[in-house]
Design goal:
The protein is mainly α and 210 residues long. It is built from 12 helices and no strands. It folds into 2 domains: 87 residues, Endonuclease Iii, domain 2 (Orthogonal Bundle), CATH 1.10.1670.40; 105 residues, Hypothetical protein, domain 2 (Endonuclease III, domain 1, Orthogonal Bundle).
Amino acid sequence: MSRLDGPVLAAAIDRLAAVDADIAAAVARIGYPIPRLRTPGFATLLQIMVAQQISVRAAAAIWARTVQACGPAVSAERFLALDDDALRAIGLSRRKMAYGRGLAQAVSSGALDLDSLAVRPEAEAVAAISALHGFGRWSAEIYLLFALGRTDSFPGDDLAVQVGMQRLKGLAQRPDRKQMDALAEPWRPHRGCAALLLWHVYGSATLDPS
């Protein structure tokens, strides 16, 4: 499995720019996106769930407390050893406690084989993660893109990616998932790399000409 590092990402963006004038213009204006590399495994998938529907700052604070509570490595077994009081102190809601324990139990029991996700077809890998309570298509696609370096995994449900697409294509309204998939179809097999550029477009709003 190749990592979606800087050179790999830049080469993919160059190929996209050659076939999409809007991407070429965005790269000329704001430059290349940075890689978002994550280590494959339980900890990264748990961190993705923790970050759902809360601010970046809040997610970082909760994750820092999770790492502190679990010790040197956030593993399924260490997480399962934490009781309700410890998880509340970390800052997890009751619902996210259940989601985290469900993930930890699935990984610990072997019901979810994280190692196999790297070689399973995209739809199967997404389905395996989505089968967990609290882990939908967005969580799966984020994991496949960031942790497994799958260049065509496209988290089209992500709000920032949708706004980035709206800005890139000059759309009057933010596209929904169906529209996102249609707009991204010409970008195969590098839709995930394009998503990283769309995050970059979203984060570079202040650089737009007035």
